[in-house]
């Protein structure tokens, strides 16, 4: 298996935030013009810039979308589906799809992380399921089973199946999943997007070699989570 080279290219804004950012900017400009010309005291104008300008900049930061390419051999490689931090790395019994022990890797995305999600491996999408639910804090164990979530079953090129689960958090209120059953999927392609705080879980076979540890920071489509046998 060849050497893997990770490359991060230029950054753009994700299309999931286009409407929100455009409407928000237009509203801010309109209200700012009204304040500037209709109010003699300029303090309300500067106060407005601070109170709404900062949240708007945070939203712009949230919807940034780096263009990333994983160059090199991808056979058996599992890459991080999201930016964030490893909050779970343990063996669990997965009783919904596989009915066997699996290695669970969970990545928590804070408000400051990129929230685009990438496919973790090359293969074929078998199933996609969306479930409504609660909005517990995303790093809590019960979030994986009780929160709103989308579950994607992927058959990797070596025939092994993995589960990738998008989980909404306490702030997140919308999960977008681009994956469709019977679609081919590849590393470098976007799996979906989760708006405002969340996590992504991976359920890998027990014989997969895991290359990350608890608390480790991850970069979506760059950090190698592990290798399938």
Assembly type of the chains comes to single chain
- Average residue-wise pLDDT: 83
Strand order of the largest sheet: 11-7-8-9-13-5-4-15
Low-confidence stretches: 1-9
Number of helical elements: 3
What is the helix/strand order?
Answer: EHHEEEEEEHEEEEEEEEE
CA radius of gyration is 20 Å
Largest sheet: 8 strands, antiparallel
The number of distinct β-strands equals: 16
Cα distance spanning the termini:
12 Å
Helix content class: 10-25%
What can you see in these coordinates?
- Residues 1-9 have low confidence and may be disordered.
- Helix 1 runs antiparallel to helix 2.
- The chain has helices at 18-38, 43-62, 143-146; strands spanning 5-13, 64-71, 77-79, 84-94, 100-109, 116-118, 123-131, 149-156, 161-168, 174-177, 184-185, 190-195, 198-204, 209-210, 217-218, 224-227.
- It contains three helices and 16 strands.
- It is 20% helix and 42% strand.
- The strands form four sheets. Strands 11-7-8-9-13-5-4-15 form an eight-stranded antiparallel sheet.
- With 229 residues, it is α+β, with helices and mostly antiparallel strands.
- The radius of gyration is 20 Å and the shape is elongated.
């Amino acid at each position: 298996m060849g050497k893997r080279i990770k490359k991060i290219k230029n950054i753009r804004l994700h299309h999931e935030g286009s409407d929100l950012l455009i409407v928000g900017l237009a509203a801010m400009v309109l209200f700012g013009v009204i304040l500037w010309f209709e109010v003699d005291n300029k303090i309300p104008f500067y106060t407005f810039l601070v109170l709404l300008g900062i949240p708007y900049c945070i939203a712009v930061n949230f919807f940034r979308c780096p263009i990333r390419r994983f160059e090199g051999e991808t056979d058996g490689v599992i890459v991080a589906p999201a930016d964030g931090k490893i909050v779970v790395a343990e063996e669990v019994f997965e009783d919904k799809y596989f009915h066997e022990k699996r290695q669970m890797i969970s990545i928590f995305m804070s408000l400051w992380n990129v929230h685009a999600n990438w496919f973790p491996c090359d293969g074929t999408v078998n199933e996609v399921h969306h479930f409504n639910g609660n909005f517990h804090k995303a790093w809590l164990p019960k979030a994986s089973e009780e929160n709103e979530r989308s579950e994607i079953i992927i058959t990797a090129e070596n025939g092994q199946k993995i589960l990738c689960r998008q989980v909404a958090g306490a702030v997140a209120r919308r999960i977008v999943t681009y994956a469709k059953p019977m679609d081919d999927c590849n590393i470098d392609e976007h799996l979906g997007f989760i708006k405002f705080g969340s996590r992504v879980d991976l359920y890998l076979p027990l014989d997969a070699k895991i290359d990350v540890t608890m608390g480790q920071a991850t970069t979506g489509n760059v950090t190698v989570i592990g290798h399938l046998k």
